[in-house]
Amino acid sequence: MESEQLYHRGYCRNSYNSIASASSDEELLDGAGVIMDFHTTEDDNLLDGDAASPGSNYAMSNGGGAASSTTHLLDFLEEPIPGVGTYDDFHTIDWVREKCKDRERHRKINSKKKESAWEFTKSLYDAWSGWLVVTLTGLASGALAGLIDIAADWMNDLKEGVCLSAMWFNHEQCCWTSNETTFAERDKCPQWKSWAELILGQAEGPGSYIMNYFMYIYWALSFAFLAVCLVKVFAPYACGSGIPEIKTILSGFIIRGYLGKWTLMIKTITLVLAVASGLSLGKEGPLVHVACCCGNIFSYLFPKYSKNETLWRSFFAALVAAFVLRSINPFGNSRLVLFYVEYHTPWYLFELIPFILLGVFGGLWGAFFIRANIAWCRRRKSTRFGKFPVLEVILVAAITAVVAFPNPYTRQNTSELIKELFTDCGPLESSQLCQYRLQMNGSKASEGGPNRPAGPGVYSAMWQLCLALIFKIIMTIFTFGLKVPSGLFIPSMAIGAIAGRIVGIAVEQLAYYHHDWFLFKEWCEVGADCITPGLYAMVGAAACLGGVTRMTVSLVVIVFELTGGLEYIVPLMAAVMTSKWVGDAFGREGIYEAHIRLNGYPFLDAKEEFTHTTLAREVMRPRRSDPPLAVLTQDDLTVEELQSVINETSYNGFPVIVSKESQRLVGFALRRDITIAIENARRKQEGIVLSSRVYFTQHAPTLPADSPRPLKLRSILDMSPFTVTDHTPMEIVVDIFRKLGLRQCLVTHNGRLLGIITKKDILRHMAQMANQDPESIMFN
């Protein structure tokens, strides 16, 4: 609570010229939070309306009828008020105020650490608390990620059968322990029994196929039903990806409970169930939400972060998380990457053509998916169908299971599908994708081209992959946004990997049957395998993911970290940049930004450009058709009049002025702080009645003996609200909001208050300039 003393002091902000010359965001905040003491300034006395000299004494009524002749007013509210400085749910925080509170706390710690050994120990604890939170967050995130991977793999295989020797083993782990398993048939072992073998006693035939089909659908529906029920009953915030909300929270928006304990627990459990149900979704996006929940929970164990709304968002614990993940080894390959690749053939320059074509496909897919998914989610929100989330999840899960089972590429786990598509064909691979038509004697072609003619298995796999591509595209549109945890990384990568593998096999067969073309003749040696279809799958996966998220460099790094393929950075970058350019031609928003706009969150994207020539007076409120701006005078209001203003309006805060005639600005008071201060004074201070005079000034004038006790609210007043003139270009105003994290800015003309611009006003103005619905921004 010591940091709350900041509200007893004002802090002036420099002009925009100094802010514009700052070289970093830290310098911007430095220039915006210079602490100054207003207790002895002459301007303060003028604002208070006092003509007395600095040495004069002030007299007032003590609330009991007796006058205090020569004592300075020591109001009860000069002490910090519990609850003041906090924020309501679905409101934007004031980054500048939070930064200043933390700096004030840090100054006090540094000033006291030389007083005693105990204070020095407290300062060390404060300095190391950040590392402790990072370590705890990394440990928890890595452990939960590993456990989710292991549990999801086991439950996914449970739809097909069970391991008799150890029920907690999945299919792959079960057959690892078998001595009767060959490498060619490593998925077949006597310890693993399908449901048809357990129930009917037979592994082959129409009856066993129908039984396995039925059990697959049964388990898929059971997992989906349990997941949606847990989310609906215990933690509604556990649904979805979580990344749109996390991006909004990082921008300074408060969503109470979104990073809480219940959300973490339910999201962890239901993420396993949702992935195991076979729905076209992934777990990577929701894992970001899980990690943020861990960081939020651990940060509140330390005073340094529990009283600050901003600092905990800066934590990054990848090193510790990676160490824990490596210890758990959920992938079973002793590596930290999910789709480790090891290609033996380099890529050639002519392959940039199909790589760029995959980028075009990724951009088109991303633009189509964003529009289709947003249209479906908007229909879900605006119709009665959205009132039945359990029915929708069951319906989508049933369609997914029924259609997915006959196709081996849609039946298997999506991560396993991507891994198979990324894998290069070796001599021991038994997949259909590697069933090439080799010569009878097994020797290489003596002349001509690479000996990779496609066999019947490859052609069959191509048809199945084409059907799987159509199925994944359709189901992903309807799945993302369901009331279960649902990520988008893995489904998008699967769609791109399927398309890339198809293109890769096509180019490979062209190189075989037309090896005398100048492209192949120049780059491919006779009898060599110069085309790697798995590489095309990896490039296609990156392209489709880039088309959906509109990420570029970070996406290439993510794909590199997932695969370990450092030497393929150039093909990945070519495809990802192409997908972004093609996608931007249809709309610059990624899927997460589109969902932020759909939900009406006040997210001001730092990458979005504002090039219009409007001025602050064209955006500010009130406008000509609006009622006058609600303001508070510094010493003319009673408690009853102040409560009336609060009850009759819904504004987040009110400018405080000297008088309605002068319109000279004094400060800005938040609605929540005013309400808490009045309730706190009535509860703990005698003599506060409806007719009590309210003062936002430093000192109160002499009052008659029979006057009720006054209420001083100076301590909750922000003495330095950020202001711009009415002729300030909106480009500058938007830049100020982005760099300083403001939630409101006052507009003046020749020092007189004209209006106010909020973050919501800016977002609505930007939407209107982009020919979008400005009313879609619902929160401030």
Automatic annotation (TrEMBL):
Pfam families: CBS (PF00571), Voltage_CLC (PF00654)
Source domain of life: Eukaryota
GO cellular component: early endosome membrane; Golgi apparatus; late endosome membrane; lysosomal membrane; plasma membrane; synaptic vesicle
Subcellular location: Cell membrane; Early endosome membrane; Late endosome membrane; Lysosome membrane
CDD domains per record: CBS_pair_voltage-gated_CLC_euk_bac, ClC_3_like
GO molecular function, one term: ATP binding
Keywords: Antiport, ATP-binding, CBS domain, Cell membrane, Chloride, Endosome, Glycoprotein, Ion transport, Lysosome, Membrane, Nucleotide-binding, Repeat, Transmembrane, Transmembrane helix, Transport
Chief localisation class: membrane
Membrane association type: Multi-pass membrane protein
Leader sequence segment: none
Domain named CBS: residues: 620-686, 717-775
InterPro entries: CBS_dom, CBS_dom_sf, Cl-channel_core, ClC, ClC3
Transmembrane segments: 128-148, 216-238, 259-281, 287-303, 310-328, 348-370, 390-409, 461-482, 494-515, 535-560
Cross-referenced PANTHER family: CHLORIDE CHANNEL PROTEIN, H(+)_CL(-) EXCHANGE TRANSPORTER 3
Family: Belongs to the chloride channel (TC 2.A.49) family. ClC-3/CLCN3 subfamily.
Free-text function comment from the UniProt entry: Strongly outwardly rectifying, electrogenic H(+)/Cl(-)exchanger which mediates the exchange of chloride ions against protons. The CLC channel family contains both chloride channels and proton-coupled anion transporters that exchange chloride or another anion for protons. The presence of conserved gating glutamate residues is typical for family members that function as antiporters.
Name of the protein in question: Chloride channel protein
Organism ancestry: Eukaryota, Metazoa, Chordata, Craniata, Vertebrata
